[in-house]
Specification:
mainly alpha; 5 helices; 0% strand
Length: 101
Amino acid sequence: CEYCLPCPVGVNIPSAFEVLNKLYMFKNTEEAKFMYAIRGGGIFSGLGEGYASQCIQCGECLEKCPQNIPIPEVLEEAVKYLEDDKVKERLTMGKKMLNME
C-alpha cells in the first residue's frame, strides 16, 4: 500500500515485504534472495539501495501504517531470511542479466 513511505533512511519497505511474503508462500529461498537483492538494490526503482538492514527503527513507518503492522520487526525477519554475505554478488549478477553494467 506504501503508506509507510517514504522511509527516512530509504528502506524499500513494500519491496522487502513482497519478497518475504513470496518466500513464505513458495519456499524458494534462492529465488527470494536473488529478487530481494535486485529489488532492494534499487535496480527497478532507481532510488538506490533500500535493504531492510538499513532500518534504524525510528518508528516513522509505524505511525503511518493503517494496518498496525510491526514494520521494524518484519524488516528484521527480512534481514534474517533474505540478507547474507552474497547480497552484493546477487545484485551484480542481476545488473549483468539486465545489461545494466
